[in-house]
Amino acid sequence: MRKKLIAGNWKSNGSLERNADLLDSIVGAKALGSVDVVVCPPFPYLPSVGDAVSGSKVELGAQNCSATEEGAYTGEVSARMCADVKCSWVILGHSERRALFAESDDVIACKVKRAIDSGLKPILCIGETLEERESGRAEEVALKQLDAVFLSVQPDESWVVAYEPVWAIGTGKTASPNDAQSMHKALRDNIRKHFPQIADKIRILYGGSVKSSNAKELFSMPDVDGALVGGASLVSEEFVSIIEAAVE
User: Fold this and answer.
1) d(CA 27, CA 52)
2) Per-residue pLDDT tens for 74-106?
3) Backbone conformation region of residue 105, classed left if phi is above 0, alpha if psi is from -120 to 50, else beta
């Protein structure tokens, strides 16, 4: 049985005061231990958030890392730097990075390689736009994004895939549990085709307007192993409720 994982992507939000209040609730969640929990704040807050969760069962993740090593790359943050401030995880390939910052599949594969080499576990985001779904290409797009990384960098069971339909991120729209299950099963079947030894061990999360009111039903699906949570991860009551919904 795969242990559920709930990851909170704070995106470009937060302050020292707000973060402290939020983390007090998260580290006190009763479901910790039964569910793996990761919080991913913006880069400036990684050290303070890391200190706040130190000694708890909440893990620290970065929202991105550079495709480069350290060097003359102004504004970049390397995977090694993220590991140096005690990150265990890093989100890569998020649709906002793909759309707003023109990150290609090749760039994302390179970032995953940097992350692995630095000891970070990747949360690889994939997902289709509304236009791609309505044209019947949702599965094709998601599998292409998955293969671009999995066939470039040897995966292992510690990797996490996050299926995030772009049309459901921050819109209030959510894929139905059956839609999510259908895509998650297709992703797992594709992993099994190439890497049968890890297919039933790797965790596949759902992301896209996950909230306390829909989490339980989503988590009841056999191939939905948790969630990558955006806006709701900034509201302590919501995020803790989502964590609790993941308890078997």
Assistant:
1) 9
2) 999 999 999 999 999 999 999 999 999 999 999
3) alpha
Reported as a single tens digit per residue, the pLDDT across 49-69 is 999 999 999 999 999 999 999
Which residue of the set 59, 96, 128, 164 is catalytic? 164
Domain with 178, as residue range(s), is: 5-245
Q: In whole angstroms, give the CA distance from residue 180 to residue 187.
A: 11
Report d(CA 232, CA 138) in Å as an integer: 25
| 178-224 pLDDT tens trace | 999 999 999 999 999 999 999 999 999 999 889 999 999 999 999 99
Distances (CA, A) of 86 to 45, 47, 54, 101, 214: 12, 8, 9, 26, 32
**Identified catalytic residue from 94, 132, 184, 238:** 94
CATH number of the domain bearing residue 183: 3.20.20.70
What pairs with residue 6 in β-bridges? 37, 227
Contact 211, 184 (CB under 8 A): no
CA 246 – CA 226 distance, rounded (Å): 7
Annotated catalytic, 164? yes
pTM score, whole prediction: 0.96
Instruction: Please state the domain count of the chain.
Output: 1
| Nearest one of 190, 171, 178, 165 to 220, comparing CA atoms | 178
Give the residue from 243, 207, 222 showing the smallest Cα distance to 93.
207
User: Rounded to whole angstroms, what are the CA distances from 140 to 114, 133, 153, 155?
Assistant: 26, 10, 20, 20
